[in-house]
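Q: Sequence in, structure out?
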Amino acid sequence: MIFVVDASDSTGVSNFQLMIQFVGMVIRSLDIDSSADGPTISRVGLVTFSDSAVLQFHLNRYTTKAALLQAVNVPYLTGATNTDQAIRFSSFIILLVLPISLPHIDYTAAPSDPPAVVLFRILSI
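A: Exactly. Output:
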């Protein structure tokens, strides 16, 4: 799961904090913790954006709920609202540059495939 959180001036600090609290509530409801007998069930990434998008942490960065809940307390950025860039950044940087192996997803592509084709293959599985 990748959260994309608006940290621009139009959101304001108090609304940004409400969004971060919501992310924390969702994380608390997920099965995150790795165990000796298996991989992490759920993975979480976080992108914040204002003028530009910022990868706060990638899907494979944290493997425990406690670490994720601590990591989600990210700074408020301020600036203009650039939702378009945040969506493109999240799609192409996080989903296409997967440094992890996700079960049941074949994200291989021919070298000649443009990124949009690769993204379509991932999302259509």
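The longest strand covers residues 2-6.
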